[in-house]
Structure formats: C-alpha cells, structure tokens
From TrEMBL:
This is DUF4232 domain-containing protein. Residues 1-22 form the signal peptide. It holds the Pfam family DUF4232. Residues 22-65, 197-226 are annotated as: Disordered. The keyword Signal applies. Residues 64-200 form the DUF4232 domain. Residues 54-64 have a biased composition (Pro residues). Keywords: Signal.
Amino acid sequence: MAALGATAGLLGLLTACGSKPAAEAVAAPAPPPVPSVAPIETGKPPYGEQPSRTPSPPSAPPTCPESGVYVLAEEPSAAMGLRAMTLKLTNCGKRTYTLKGYPTIRVLDEDGKPLDVRVSHGSAGIATLDNFDAPPRQVTLRPNETALAGVVWRNTVTDSTVPAVNGKALDVAPAEGSPRQTVAELIDLGNTGKLGVSPWYTPEEPAKKTPTSTPTPRRSAWTTTQ
C-alpha cells in the first residue's frame, strides 16, 4: 500500500510539472498578410507605352501685309553639300498681283545685318536644276494664288583661311523696289559666298523647265543634277 501511494504521488507530481496554465499556451500562428494589389488605372497604356499625342492644329496663315502678298520659305533639300530651297509667294490681298522677273534677296546674320553674299540670277554654275535658268515670264496671281521661286547654294568650304558663313534669315522683296519681308531660314553657305535664284513661276506651268512635282509645305521640291 505504501508503494502504491508513492507511485501515485510521483505520477501526480509529473503531471503537475508537465502541464502549463492556459495563459501560457502557445498561440496558433497568424495567417500571412494578404498582398495588396494596386488598382488598375484606366486609360493608361500598358507596358510603358506612351499615350498618343493629339495632333497640333494647323497654324494660321500669316497676317496679310499692306503689299497684299506674303513670302514663306520651304525647308531646303540637301544632298552632298548642295542646298535647294523654294520661296512661296501668296497673294493674300483682294486684287490681282503681277510679277515678272526674280525676287531680290539678301542674306542676313543673327543681328539682321546683310552678309557679303553674291546673289546671281539663275543657277550661277552652282548646279544644274530644272527651271532655274529659264527666262522670266509674267505671272499674274488672283487672290489666294501662289508663285514659286528657287534659291540654291552649296555648303562647302573652299578656303580654310576664310570663316564659314551662316545666314539666319533672308531679306526678300518680290521684285526690285517692292516692300521687303524677312524669312527666317538657316543659309549655311560654307565660305562659297554665293547663291543663285530662279525667276518666279506658277505651279501650273508646263513640266518642261519646271520642278518634277509641286512643292508641299515645308519641303523643297527642286530636283538637282550635280
């Protein structure tokens, strides 16, 4: 009996030592956090694509000057140092406007002062171009009609001791004695010191001695044979 009592006491002691209060019980592991998902932005292109730009509205035509005509320059074409550019004169007035001959041109520096550049009628030996050496003819423009003239030069350096000339604009008059207009355009002459100018003509003239196609805005259409 004494042995049984000792055994029961020992079992009770072990049971007491092996149990823990409810407060000390190990809590169940917390569930992992749910990953946050950024909301999808509607209207934004995926994969870093850039949204398409809204095309700019066409620019308004220049204000019509008192002379009733304005002159714009189209972007020069360039090939192996040769530059060819189209001047476009538009009759913005309410009366007909008559031209015959060549525009008078001066090349201006960044301060608006004339540079020492020789301007010749025709291609001036710079290159062989359609229409440049055709004889002048009378051009009569009704309101909103246009006439064209070409300007050609070379961007070459023929003398390393002479600084290259870069004109920043053209001072243009439709004819000798007519009001002059400034046309902003880079004229990179190298140090050749010369450019050639064609007579005025209309886009509707026959194909002979004319450019191969009617110039489109901001792009010269002169064809060249170097």
